[in-house]
Amino acid sequence: MPVDNSRIKGLYKLSVQERRALVAKATQLSEEHVQALAAHGELDETAADRMIENVIGTMSLPVGVATNFVIDGKHYLVPFCLEESSVVAAASNMAKRCLGHGGFSTNNDDPIMIGQIQMLDVENIEQATTHILDSKDELMAFCNDIPSRMIALGGGCKDIEVRQLPTPIGTMLIVHLLVDCRDAMGANAVNTMAERVAPRIEALTGGRAHLRILSNLAGHRLARVAAVFTPEEMASNGTKEDGKAVIEGILQAHAFAVEDPYRAATHNKGVMNAISSVALACGQDWRAIEAGCHAWPTLSNGRYTSMSMWTEDGEGNLVGSMELPMAVGIVGGASKVHPAARANLAILGVETAQELAGIILCAGLAQNLGALRALSTKGIQAGHMKLHAKNMAVSAGAVGGEVDALAARLQAHEGHRTQSLVETWLAEMRQG
Predict the structure, then answer these.
(1) What is the third-level CATH fold of 11-108+224-377?
(2) Pairing of strands 208-215, 172-180
């Protein structure tokens, strides 16, 4: 279940142990989940060896919790898994700035995935198309005639579409199975159906089935998010005038991303900083999610452009929205195998895959706004370097109290902040 209140003042001031205990209490984590988060190697080698081939060990990344998220009237603490500083802080900050209008609102499609069957050597494509569509009900029934909890819960193949695809080597007939995957991501189920029904489509068309696999461009499985930010919430000093100037700068930065693919790539990377991090924390196939998210702007707009949309309403408020494919699951896969993934899902308390999809998209919109606001005001490096100072100290070889001392000196330094400079300071510190 969501938490009573996602606004935790001073969380960043606490120790790791204190933060973990506080989050565990707020989200009613079991001791098993707490220990999974506390263990430096939460994934033992036996479990890892079952997940991929040639396992030699495991690799850990930090898991942080973003605060202040109110989504569809519910409070959430949102786990992020990544190595980059400032992302969690920025997302938490932006989530707090839309509370005046109730936080984020979401609206998601049914969890429909696409299974593609590539038909080659079809002599009469028009006739083959007719035969497939006339046999649609029979083909769907055959797809669904398998023992499956997903089908028992109301999922399964719900429709079949046929596309004619001109290519340099001839026109191909592409069959799409539209499969309701319920609370699963659905890759295994979709691939099984595609392979199972392919011989029947061959018989109907006289062609040859070649590739039979799902598409990661889940255009029927879209998640949507929207949020409203007042000028006062966007201001640096709390005044409406300052907030209006900040909003104007954000809109100008957004216009740049909309029209320029070079800017859009970096703009969208900011979106994915959160989406991929929350997906990874929750044991999702974040590579598939990234592929679908980056492809969607091109499909929906005819060119690569911004994933997010930022406008100003009639009252001068900043309005953010986003629509992206979001193929996630809370049953099966790493979400059930990896102990830390299970713990992070428990922190969220999600009950459906659609709820998880909405939360992930909200995190993406918040992080995108954080980057836009920083870039259009004081620049990205100020906040980033503040949080990155300790990393630079550790990279220089600092240990114990040296880390905080070097980080503090670096933050106070007015000139260029380089790794070599930190190394020089460390050497001086040790020489006395």
Answers:
(1) 3.90.770
(2) unpaired
